[in-house]
Each structure stands twice: as C-alpha cells, then as structure tokens.
Design brief:
Distance between the termini: 23 Å
Strand order of the largest sheet: 1-2
Strand content: under 5%
Number of strands: 2
Number of helices: 17
C-alpha cells in the first residue's frame, strides 16, 4: 500500500533510532537508551493529546499490548529489569507514531549503522586492551582462555550480549543492502570484526550464516528453496559443532541448560511454570544462568511470557515473510549462547524494516 509522505521523520524518532541500543552499563548507571525512551514516550503522549488519531498496525499493537503482561513481573523482579522489558515491547508502537507516513533520509539510517558499528568495535578494542583478571592457566586448561576478553565490556555484563546486538545490526545492514541501497563492504567488515572479537561463537556463526543469506537474497533465490537451505545449514552446522566441540565445557553447557529447563518444568508447580520466577532469578532455580533466550523467557517470565514473545515473532514473520530469515533468525540463533529479554534495538530495527517494506516509510536516497 502506497501512502502520501510529506514530512521527514520528527527529530524524536531519529533520537530513538540512535539511542535504542545505547547501553553503557559499566560507564553510567543511567544509559542513554533510557533518556531516549523517556523523550519519545513523552512526545508520544503529547502527540496523542494534540492529534486526533494515531494509526498503528494491528500486528504491532497487539504484541505491544500483550507485552504489558510483563508488568506483573514487578512482584518478583528488580524494577529496572521490568522497565527494560516493557521498554522493549512498547517501543514499536512509538516507532509507528513517529515513522509511519513519513520519509527519512538514507544518510540518517546509514549514519545509525555506522554509529553502532564503531560503538561495538570500540567495546571490543577496550576488552582486548583491558582483559579481565582471571586465572588464565586454569581457563586454558578448560579450553576457554579467551574468556578474559569477554567480561570487561563497558556496554553490558558479557560480550555475548554485544555479539547479539552486533548480529542484529548486521541483519539490519543487510536488509538495507537488499531493499534500499547497496551497503559498503568496509561497513560490513567493521561489524563482522566487532562480532568476531566478542569471542561469542554463536554470534560469529550467526553472522557467517547471515552473510550467506544476504548473498542468496541478492541472487533472488526462491523462497521455498531459501527455507530448505536454512534448515539444512542449521542441521548440519549443529551436528558438526556437536562433534567438533564434544569436549568443550562452554559449548556443552548450552545443552546442559536445556536439561535443567526440563527439570525445572518437572519439579515446579503450575503457578511458577505459568508466571515464571522473575527476571534475573533463573540462577536460583537452575543453579546457573539461563544462557539461552527461550530458556530465559520460559523460566523467568513463565509460559505466558514465552507465548507473548513467540506471538511477537509470529507477527514479525507475517509482516516480513522471507525477510524474517534475514532480520530475525540470525539474532535468535546468536541468542542460544546468552539469552537477554531486553533487546529494544532488535525491536526497533525490525519495526523500521516492516515500515520500509510496507512502504509506510519512504527512504530518500538523495
């Protein structure tokens, strides 16, 4: 559906685009992402008051409305963590208000990708120059000596989370390359380097698969063949990694977490299973952190919270179809190594891509 676009995206929309993934948890207790969200939220309420109506797609409104379920987590979770997940699920509605039926300069979108690519690269360089203080000999005995370069990130608690954000950024860059204008190879290389130096094998694998998907998209491979390729790559990659990392404690722990999740479901009451144990509390029930996105949702937000997330993924697939493989699947794959329920950058990139694909947002290439 083609719509008439007159004005450029308001400055508050651009501000959120640039701040949606700006977490600096080791530098400041109040990361810029919260300031950006506060500004766009206040602007949204002002727009709601002074404008007769705000049009939001049902596929965006319904997941965000269901996302309000996470308010119930205030009972069992730290308030800051609950605010983060609510922020993540509500930002698509705000994006629709400030991006739908507008036009945006290509340079603004490209500038955002460059900005985050240098931020992630900077975090990686910092970790390489300031390794964490651990018993390196002991880590090397376990085959995980590289962990000294994973924990001293200034963005998050662990570089795996940086890797997830890097994969999400790379997906968005590839989408731009397919639908708007060819992305420069140096930009893709910078993002790939930033992902590689996170030492997150799940993120590295996901980014390599993503590059393959990008090539297939450019070649306009039929959608059924594309789904078949994705399934085959996923199956053979999993089998190969099981053999190659058969004695890797870090890799094997990812499967142990699945066993612990099954035990959790078998040993707890229905109330706990339905509602979860609260954000950040999985370690108290599993004996270790839930380093898996879906296990994190299942244990910490319960079956109900997991269904809300899965419904959101389904709505994205309905809107994106084959582009879901390019924009969403790689991030989900990378999240098998470390699950974070707080990903406003992913929700922002996906929503923006849907608006572009549906032609509700026009990108000015000039």
């Amino acid at each position: 559906m083609q719509v008439n676009h007159i004005s450029h995206v308001p400055i508050v929309g651009v501000l959120w685009l640039y701040s949606s993934g700006l977490y600096l948890t080791k530098i400041t207790p109040l990361s810029p992402v919260y300031l950006g969200f506060f500004i766009i939220l206040i602007s949204f309420f002002m727009l709601f008051i002074y404008k007769e109506s705000i049009t939001v797609s049902k596929g965006v409104l319904l997941p965000s409305f269901l996302g309000l379920y996470y308010i119930s987590l205030f009972i069992s979770s730290p308030p800051a963590m609950v605010m983060n997940i609510i922020l993540t699920f509500t930002c698509p509605v705000l994006l629709y208000a400030f991006f739908s039926h507008y036009k945006i300069k290509y340079s603004i979108i490209l500038g955002c990708v460059w900005f985050y690519s240098f931020l992630l690269l900077g975090d990686g360089i910092w970790r390489l120059l300031h390794p964490a203080e651990f018993d390196l000999d002991k880590l090397e005995e376990l085959g995980i000596g590289f962990h000294i370069y994973k924990l001293n990130t200034f963005m998050y608690m662990d570089s795996n989370t940086v890797g997830i954000q890097g994969v999400s950024l790379l997906s968005f860059a590839c989408f731009i390359g397919c639908y708007i204008k060819k992305i420069s190879i140096p930009l893709l290389m910078i993002i790939l380097i930033a992902i590689i130096i996170t030492f997150s094998r799940a993120a590295i694998l996901s980014s390599l698969l993503l590059i393959i998907f990008y090539y297939l998209f450019i070649k306009k491979v039929p959608i059924l063949f594309l789904y078949l390729i994705v399934c085959l790559i996923f199956i053979f990659t999993t089998i190969g990694m099981l053999f190659y990392f058969s004695e890797d404690h870090s890799f094997l722990s990812k499967f142990h977490i699945l066993e612990l999740a099954a035990t959790f479901l078998g040993e707890n009451d229905w109330g706990t299973i339905l509602l979860g144990v609260g954000l950040g509390n999985a370690i108290d029930f599993l004996g270790m952190g839930a380093h898996n996105l879906f296990v994190t949702f299942l244990v910490e937000t319960g079956v109900l919270g997991t269904l809300v997330f899965c419904f959101t993924l389904f709505c994205w697939w309905c809107a994106l179809r084959k582009d879901w493989i390019l924009l969403v699947f790689p991030t989900l794959l990378a999240s098998m190594s470390l699950g974070t329920v707080v990903m406003p950058y992913l929700f922002t990139f996906v929503t923006l891509s849907i608006l572009i694909k549906k032609k509700y947002l026009v990108v000015d290439n000039i």
